[in-house]
Amino acid sequence: MKKKTAMMTEQIHPFAPIYDKYSKVLILGSFPSVKSRETAFYYGHPSNRFWKVTAAVMGCAVPETAEEKKAFLLQNGIAVWDVIRSCKIEGSSDSSIKDAVPNDFGEILRHSSITHIFANGALAAKIYNDHKISRVTGIEIITLPSTSPANAAYNVERLCEHWRQIAEYCKG
Predict the structure, then answer these.
(1) Which residues, 6+ apart, have CB-to-CB distance to 170 below 8 Å?
(2) 3-class SS string, 1-13
(3) Rounded distance, CA 92 to CA 89, Å?
(4) Are 22 and 74 in contact (CB under 8 A)?
(5) Which residues are CB-neighbours of 69 under 8 A, at least 6 positions away?
(6) Average pLDDT value for residue range 76-105
(7) pTM (2 decimals)?
(8) Which of 141, 140, 136 lies closest to 118 in space, CA to CA?
(9) Residues paired with residue 12 on neighbouring β-strands, in sequence order
(10) Looking at residues 36-54, what average pLDDT do you find?
(11) Based on the number of CB atoms within 10 Å of its own CB, is 4 exposed (0-12), middle (13-18) or buried (19 or more)?
(12) Tens digit of each residue's pLDDT (9 = 90 or more) over 116-131
């Protein structure tokens, strides 16, 4: 019996970054999952721990709706985007990403107060570093363990231990 595989397709990032002039921290994922693309919002897969972890480290209730999530981010000085503008990808598999083209971070940095950039997982950091994006931003990326359900080695408590550092830069 052959295993059915998803097709590799060219994808363009489907939604804008979330930030405002008060955003101090930028959290970069790699590229939106199929579920996030369907919901047209970041970390849309119900098993992704991003919202649970960021809410915990900021001492807030977990936001539920897209509007609540956006308000939570902005109220806490957090900007969210992805490092990849376009790529070829099979389903939601980060390991399948090919021909990644990075986003242009100039606009977001000119219109915010971002001082620190964090990667939600190793792939986002790798692409940021491979494309030498810090030469444009002037900010080195700090890698955090991925909140993806594929990162089974980290439970929520262990993720929070690593992610707590974002709170000090948001509040500072």
Answers:
(1) 24, 25, 58, 76, 77, 78
(2) CCCCCCCEEEEEC
(3) 7
(4) yes
(5) 41, 42, 51, 63
(6) 87
(7) 0.92
(8) 141
(9) 86
(10) 92
(11) exposed
(12) 999 999 999 999 999 9
Provide the residue type at 18 as one letter: I
Contact 84, 102 (CB under 8 A): yes
Say what percent of the chain tops pLDDT 70. Answer: 94
Position 4 scores a pLDDT of: 46
pLDDT class of 61 with cuts at 50, 70, 90: very high
The crossing angle, in degrees rounded to 10, of helices 50-58 and 66-75 is 40
pLDDT digits (tens, 9 = 90+) for 5-20: 557 778 888 899 999 9
28 in Cβ contact with 128 (< 8 Å): yes
Q: Are 24 and 172 in contact (CB under 8 A)?
A: yes
What domains, with CATH codes, occur in the chain? 24-171 (3.40.470.10)
Cβ-based neighbours of 67, under 8 Å, separated by 6 or more: none
Q: How far apart (Å, rounded) are the C-alpha atoms in residues 5 and 32?
A: 19
Q: Which two tokens stand for residue 56?
A: 């915990």
